[in-house]
Design a protein that fits this description.
single chain; 700 residues; mainly alpha; two-stranded antiparallel ribbon; 2 strands; flat; EXOC6/Sec15_C; EXOC6/Sec15; Exocyst complex component; EXOC6PINT-1/Sec15/Tip20_C_dom2
Length: 700
């Protein structure tokens, strides 16, 4: 009975749970189901039974609903099947209609695009016309400005520039051509200023040329006016004279008023920019002309011609310049004698500024270096520069007293300075270079000195320009010939370097003491050659301050001369015998020469260019060391021959010397088979070389 009561109590609870499951979201089902398990022990089974019953009820309701709507669904499907055919026909018609509509619309689209393009072009044309109408007045005014400049109407051109800047350019300032015009206006103004200044100078010069006629006319008119006034005063009484004075006074005042009004109008029209400059220049030149007018002409003292006197003065001037040139020749010789031909050392800023104040030297790299440091030139360079300036001052003192124009004085100074550079200084330099006591180090320093003196010539030209106030750009201005002077001196010094270097090589080569009959080499290079190579290394270190081509030429010349000297030593007619041991010893020396050439003693050579100086020796020695006569004779005359540089006459001479040695040193050679074979081989090669040499001589 208790169990039944419990079952009856759980049924409403299960119905509530089922309603809650059906009505709530699936996320909240968990707590609801958990309450089923939390109730009585058999509640779960009963809940499942209740759930199955609920499911069956829903299935029945679904079945009833499906049965109720099934007939309507079938009818709808039937209707859709009937409509399907009509829908397909309609689809075909719509597709066909769309295609025909698209085809018909293509022409409309093309015409529409043409209309749009035409509208855009029309709008662009309208815009261009508007912009051109805005730009045309500017271009017309600028063209007018050019015409005014061509016609030399400079005042009107200045007014046109003002209108362009204030009125026209602001309208079109965004265009590039306007910016170009704006940038060109200052140049045009400067051109007008220069032309106006030139016209003013021409006007003042014409006044100076015709000043005597103008003065004569003015004095005549003044005299006539004075005579006329005196006559009037004598003929008229005091009252009439008074009236005349009043009558004369009125026109004068009227004239003064007219002049004043004219000046005021002119002042209003004057350009503000350079008015003061032109006015000051005009006043200054008129004052100079006034002073010149008061002075007698240079070719008249008291009305007598003095042309012969001036001719005499010019002759004296030439003699004076000759005297100066002789004097400065001694000065230059003393400077060269006192020079130590080494770079100028400086230990502090005061010494550096002292040198700079004497000679115009500029080198940013040297300025950045810390003290102590050295100038590249020697002490003679600033002294020579100072003495050239002193010579210009001395020549100027005489020229100033000749009453010549500034242009003539400038021409005199430049010509006399050119004589000093091209004749006196050049001669002193050449004599210095050829002196026996001047060594290679001194010659290198002389080349460096001439380079800096050449660069200083432009400062000498500026120095003369500052004295005479004659610009270097003047057409008839004489140029200083320092470039050719110092270039010739450098070439002479370079040639002397090559000569002295070759002489030094000859001195070392003369110390060679080969034992030409030695049986075995010493195993090391000769002492004289190692001393020579060490000397060349040290001297080429000094050449690093020279221009690259000079150092390279000197190095190549030295190697070629050494190679020639060694070759001549082998082929010396006084040398009668040479053993194979001597050839091997000689080969060791040539190897040292080649190593020296490959060590790049002077930078700038490409590849093995320097080693080629010893190529003749190398191929000759290789031929004798390897004893490869068959290859030599077979390949002779071929461009790809291994011994292309070996002359048959040279090889024959050396081989005959070795043959004689072989005969004398091998008394018992006839008793040894190897020696007999070698002797026969030498004789065979000698015969072949002789026939080759004879054939060459006959062909020649």
């Amino acid at each position: 009975m208790a169990e039944n009561s419990e079952g009856l109590g759980t049924v409403p609870e299960h119905e509530r749970i089922l309603q809650e499951i059906e009505s709530t979201d699936t996320a909240c089902v968990g707590p609801t189901l958990r309450s089923v398990y939390d109730d009585q022990p058999n509640a779960h089974k009963k809940f499942m039974e209740k759930l199955d019953a609920c499911i069956r009820n829903h299935d029945k309701e679904i079945e009833k609903m499906c049965n109720f709507h099934h007939q309507g669904f079938v009818d709808a499907i039937t209707e859709l099947l009937k409509v399907r055919t009509d829908a397909e026909k309609l689809k075909v018609q719509v597709t066909d209609t769309n295609r025909r509509f698209q085809d018909a619309g293509k022409e409309v689209i093309v015409q529409t695009e043409d209309i749009i393009r035409c509208r855009i072009q029309q709008r662009n044309i309208t815009t261009v016309v508007e912009k051109l109408q805005l730009c045309l007045p500017v271009l017309e005014m600028y063209s007018k400005l050019k015409e005014q400049m061509t016609a030399k109407r400079y005042y009107s051109a200045l007014k046109t520039m003002e209108q362009l800047e204030n009125v026209y350019f602001p309208r079109v300032s965004q265009y590039r051509f306007c910016q170009l015009m704006i940038e060109n206006l200052p140049k045009l103004r400067e051109d007008i200023k220069e032309i106006s200044m030139s016209d003013l100078k021409d006007f003042l010069e014409s006044i100076r040329k015709h000043s005597d006629k103008i003065g004569e006319t003015a004095m005549k008119q003044a005299q006539q006016q004075k005579t006329f006034s005196v006559a009037l005063q004598k003929q008229n009484n005091v009252k009439f004279g008074k009236n005349m004075y009043i009558n004369d006074r009125i026109p004068e005042e009227r004239k003064e008023n007219e002049l004043k009004q004219g000046f005021e109008e002119e002042d209003e029209n004057e350009e503000e920019g350079d008015e003061e400059t032109f006015e000051n220049y005009y006043r200054k030149q008129r004052k100079k002309q006034a002073r010149l007018v008061l002075q007698p002409q240079s070719n008249m003292g008291y009305g007598f011609p003095v042309n012969r006197l001036f001719d005499l003065l010019f002759e004296i001037r030439d003699q004076y310049n000759e005297t100066l040139l002789k004097k400065w020749a001694g000065v230059f010789r003393d400077i060269f004698e006192e020079d130590n031909y080494s770079p100028i050392p400086i230990v502090n800023e005061e010494e550096y500024k002292a040198v700079i104040s004497k000679f115009p030297f500029q080198d940013p790299d040297l300025e950045k270096q810390s003290f102590p440091k050295k100038f590249p030139m020697s002490q003679s360079v600033p002294h020579i520069y100072i003495q050239v300036k002193e010579f210009i001052y001395a020549s100027l003192k005489f020229s100033e007293s000749l009453h010549r124009s500034s242009t003539e004085i400038d021409d005199m100074l430049r010509k006399s300075t050119n004589l000093l550079l091209t004749r006196t200084l050049s001669s002193c330099l050449l004599n210095l270079i050829r002196k026996p006591h001047i060594g290679l180090t001194e010659l290198v320093q002389i080349i460096i000195n001439t380079t800096h003196l050449e660069q200083a010539c432009k400062y000498l030209e500026d120095f003369i320009t500052n004295i005479t106030n004659i610009s270097q750009e003047t057409v008839h201005t004489t140029r200083l010939y320092g470039l050719s002077t110092f270039k010739d001196a450098r070439h002479a010094a370079e040639g002397e370097i090559y000569t002295k270097l070759n002489q030094k090589i000859d001195e070392f080569v003369q110390l060679a003491d080969y034992d030409w009959t030695m049986s075995e080499p010493d195993g090391r290079a000769s002492g004289y050659l190692m001393d020579l190579i060490n000397f060349l290394r040290s001297i080429f270190q000094v050449f690093t301050h020279l221009p690259g081509k000079v150092a390279q030429t000197a190095c190549m010349s030295a190697c070629q001369h050494l190679s020639t000297s060694l070759m001549q030593m082998l082929l010396d007619s006084e040398l009668k015998q040479i053993s194979m041991g001597a050839v091997q010893q000689f080969n060791l020396d040539v190897i040292q020469c080649e190593l020296f050439a490959s060590s790049e003693p002077v930078p700038g050579f490409q590849g093995d260019t320097l080693q080629l100086a010893f190529i003749d020796l190398r191929q000759l020695l290789d031929l004798f060391m390897v004893w490869d006569w068959s290859t030599y004779l077979a390949d002779y005359g071929q461009p790809a021959s291994k011994y292309l540089r070996v002359n048959p006459n040279t090889a024959l001479t050396l081989l005959e010397k070795m043959k004689d040695t072989s005969k004398k040193n091998n008394i018992f050679a006839q008793f040894r088979k190897n020696d007999r074979d070698k002797q026969k081989l030498i004789e065979t090669v000698v015969k072949q070389l002789r026939s080759l040499v004879n054939g060459m001589s006959q062909h020649t």
